[in-house]
Amino acid sequence: MVRKASARKRQKKMADKKKLVAGLDFAPPEPIASVLPRIQLTSSQADDLWALVCKGRRRNPNNDADAEMAKAIFAGADLANAVQQALQFYVRDVMFLSDIPQFRRRLKTLHNRVARFLATLPQEHDPVDYFLRRTYTGEIFLKDQLRPTHERLVELQQVWSEKHGPAAIRNNLAEFKKNIDAASSLLPETRPRDVAVGNFVRSLAHAWEGATGQWPTSGRDAHKNSRQSGPFADFVRAVNEMLPPDYQIKRLDHAIRSVCAQQAAAGESKGCLGEI
């Protein structure tokens, strides 16, 4: 029992230390609205991709030939739709996703401005706070016709205390500053991973899994500078060539390797949890 408890403790400690990844663990900074470009595969492009998928697709010799053909037609159509969507969302991500280092600098600037403003707020019972509060409630006026009724005065005093006074503003801005810190902690200080490329290859992996029934795998080709090889790697590169020239990705090996390893890592994690 002691060993089991220690193992759980270690796992919790590792989970707490794990750095969350943009695009995988949380949505990266993006605009409220964006335009999804229209990209349509040609029949020959769809056929070429299906031919690549068939290399990684298991066939059951006992299945009825006609049923297998019908199933392949529908699977091919689903694959084409999934690839088109991956292409469209990748181009949109490149066009509209925020530059993370610049976004982090904006958060830091905002944090500093909030901190400076907090430092200038008058303290409770400060003459400035006292004058502002009495001006808001109308107590500052000496003539009865300018002063609010007693009921209205009590209402204004409460609103000032809960919403508009320096104490309320200080509490709200302190919470806002904490949220800025939390958002900043999610964004890497070093050069961030390419979120758009990771999302693109991951979308293609899901398309591959839908067509083949298996999460993709990939090895390294020792004769080609150890670049990723295999049917899925060929499939990803073929889809990449269907992107508009200005959006084609020069380096895909790391993303292919990472995406293929994700499922294996998830399986190992489940296995470890089952043993505890």
How is the topology of this model organized?
Elements: H1 2-17, H2 43-55, H3 65-96, H4 100-120, H5 127-137, H6 150-164, H7 166-186, H8 195-212, E1 219-221, E2 227-229, H9 231-240, H10 253-275
Antiparallel strand pairs: 1-2
Q: Can you walk me through this structure?
A:
This protein has 276 residues and is mainly alpha-helical. It folds into two domains: 37-97 and 193-275, no CATH class; 103-186, no CATH class. It has helices at 2-17, 43-55, 65-96, 100-120, 127-137, 150-164, 166-186, 195-212, 231-240, 253-275; strands at 219-221, 227-229. A two-stranded antiparallel sheet has the order 1-2. α2 (43-55) packs across α3 (65-96), α3 runs antiparallel to α8 (195-212) and α6 (150-164) packs parallel to α7 (166-186).
- Give the tally of structural domains: 2
Q: Structural class, from secondary structure content?
A: mainly alpha
Strands in their spatial order, largest beta sheet? 1-2
Overall 3D form: elongated
Outline the low-pLDDT stretches: 267-276
Highlighted features:
disordered C terminus, 2 strands, 276 residues, two-stranded antiparallel ribbon
Could you give a quick summary of the protein structure above?
By secondary structure, the protein is an all-alpha fold. The protein has helices at residues 2-17, 43-55, 65-96, 100-120, 127-137, 150-164, 166-186, 195-212, 231-240, 253-275; strands at 219-221, 227-229.
